[in-house]
Amino acid sequence: xxxxxxxxxxxxxxxxxxxxxxxxxxxxxxxxxxxxxxxxxxxxxxxxxxxxxxxxxxxxxxxxxxxxxxxxxxxxxxxxxxxxxxxxxxxxxxxxxxxxxxxxxxxxxxxxxxxxxxxxxxxxxxxxxxxxxxxxxxxxxxxx
Length: 144
Known about the structure:
alpha+beta; Cytochrome Bc1 Complex, Chain A, domain 1; three-stranded antiparallel β-sheet; 5 helices; about 15% strand
């Protein structure tokens, strides 16, 4: 803590872990888009050792929050957590990276496909200027 002109300034370090993967929507084929975002969502749908819903429940019970995002050139996942929850978060992340495939099924894919489509409707299709970013990026980075 430091005191400057009668004001106490302090900072608390709140641990956050992030995993960034250099794959995003820019890696998709024309006419077959949305897969990067879809798989970002599926990564939260359980794994061989963590049932559906338990990933979030375990982290929330430990005082953590988590999310992920996808852009044109990357997909990332993060957890903000108390330091004593770090081993749990690292284990959960490693488990979903290593043991997602055995639990993949069409029901999970279809569920998350609908969620991703709805997000697009809310954030792009039904918003004034919602397609502006896509139009600008297409002009800046034309696909060959």
